[in-house]
């Protein structure tokens, strides 16, 4: 079984996982094509959920930031 590390993850990947990749994974080789497709759908759903939660958290944090652009310019210290 391949150890997953930061070095062997393709962070630039821009395509979805495939049924073939699922079935090539240790522990999932026994799945039928239909079962592997369900795994693909689950992974995509999970990733979308996590991304949307992260995005909402970022948006909520940005709303808490107080903008100083509308305030008077601060005087420089002497």
The global form is elongated
Q: Which sequence of SSEs, written as H and E, runs from N to C? A: HH
Number of strands: 0
Strand content: under 5%
CA-to-CA gap between the ends?
A: 65 Å
Task: Report the total helices.
Answer: 2
Helix content percent band? 40-55%
Average pLDDT score: 83
The description of the largest β-sheet is: none
Low-confidence stretches: none
Class per helix and strand makeup:
mainly alpha
Rg calc = 22 Å
List the helices and strands and how they pair.
Blueprint: H1 19-23, H2 33-64
Could you characterize the architecture of this molecule?
- The chain contains two helices and no strands.
- The model has no long low-confidence stretch (mean pLDDT 83).
- The chain has a domain of 49 residues.
- The radius of gyration is 22 Å and the shape is elongated.
- It is mainly alpha-helical.
- Helices cover 47% and strands 0% of the residues.
